[in-house]
Amino acid sequence: MIEFMDVYLKYPNGVEALKNININVEKGEFVFLMGSTGSGKSSLLKLIYRDLLPTSGVVYINNHDVTELPVERIPNLRRKIGVVFQDYKLLDYKNAYENIAYALEVTGTDPKNIPEKVKMVLEVVGLWEKKDRLPEQLSGGEKQLTAIARAIVHNPPVLLADEPTGNLDGDSAWNVIKILDYINSKGTTVMVATHDKSLPERLKKRVIILKDGKVASDEGASLWKS
Amino acid sequence: MGVYLPFFFREVSQSLRRNILLNVASASTVLVLVFMLGFFSLLVVNVNHLIRETMKKIQVVADLKSQVSIEKAGQVKFRIMKMPEVERARFVPKEVNLKNFGKDHPDIDVKNLNDNPLPNTIEVDIRDPDKIEYVKGEVKKYPEVEAVKSVKPETLQQLLQMARSIYITGIVIILVLLVSTVFLIANTIRLTVYSRRKEIEIMELVGSPLWFIRGPFVLEGLLHGFVGSALAILLLNLIYSRMVEWVVRMLKFVPLLSYSQVAFDISLFLLIIGILVGGVASYLSVNKYLKICK
User: Fold this and answer.
1) N or C terminus of chain A with fewer C-beta within 10 Å?
2) What's the rounded mean pLDDT across residues A141-166?
3) For an interface test with B, which of A100, A106, A118, A153 has the most B Cβ atoms less than 10 Å from its Cβ?
4) Confidence at residue B47, expressed as pLDDT on a 0 to 100 scale
5) A27-53+77-224 is classed CATH 3.40.50.300
6) Where do the CATH 3.30.70.3040 domains begin and end in chain B?
7) Chain A positions in Cβ-Cβ contact with residue B203 (cut-off 8 Å)
């Protein structure tokens, strides 16, 4: 599903963010990407949704080399990959429902199908009752759940989460992870970048540890299959 | 495509309402710059008109030998007219020349002259004053021609040179204005785009097509361009009409074009420039915030 082959990434300022990355993530897998700040977790995720291009090496998504993707085709790729961030990236003047509907509107979804799709994802994350609340009226955890709902509204085969629990307390963080696990159980491949060691320990999923841009360890690659 | 359009127009109208001050600033920038552009365009058009009018006064006059028949003179005139440097040529009988001489010299009683001392002539209008000497030489080669003189007063030449300098300066200023208009409007529109950078980021993230992200901003730019240039045209019309009235009253010898003579062309030019510049500037501004294109 997602494959990194001999990937190197060097930023224009000379910083080597990733070195010799070789990872294979199977369809339907749940992977934690761990490492300290600056270890290259976010850079690795950015390569998947083509926010960055590797300096060398190849990144395959569904057997397609995304490094060769022309700019005008990137939006097509993005519709197949949901992305969630630590800072939620919600529009302050739109309520939870409108924030999710916006993702559908700007990608040309037929307006009459929007209410049903939004309701479905809000129910998945348990926020249907709070659909009319603006982001400022939601807790941190609820904002992140809204962002997750928006990320899965296109029913993408891949969901990436970059430090989704970074701003949340323990219970809220665990709730977000449980929702991601639920989404994964429905067949979506999920990759979560985090530096919180307790989450993978509790969930018992594959953990890839990055250190100084290299894969330091890749544990439990077969766990998901069991 | 169809499903995008209602949302597309809703976004534009929302943005116009949400960013009233920025929209006014953007349209005002277009107004000021298009007005200046229009002012210099009118200057160039008028100077061009002045040059054309002055050119009409640049002539070569060929005195024909007394034995040359009118038929023969007609043939010479036609051959001169075929020269590419010549605007037109006309045969002037010696009687007319005498009459004109009399008008120019009222102190001389031409009616009482026993014999008309003036020759039949061919008056030749030249397209380019620089070619006057060349045309003189060519006309002089005809055996039917006795002498050739040119009417090229120094003051006329100086006026022409001055007009040409103004014309070239005007063109340069127009070009500079065009480029600076794009940059100034792009900067103003960038403020509008900046205020919506989060929407752009989300649109990029969720896979909105690039034309759709740019579209509302470009449409806004086109609207700013249209409104700004339309207002500039109205203002220009008002000021220029007053100016022409004043010039006609004070400086009767300056052949200014009335606004109605140039209104359509200038207005169309300014409107197209305003709209285009608004659109291009917006396109450049929004591209600045599109991470996907970098």
Assistant:
1) C
2) 91
3) A106
4) 79
5) yes
6) 59-150
7) 106
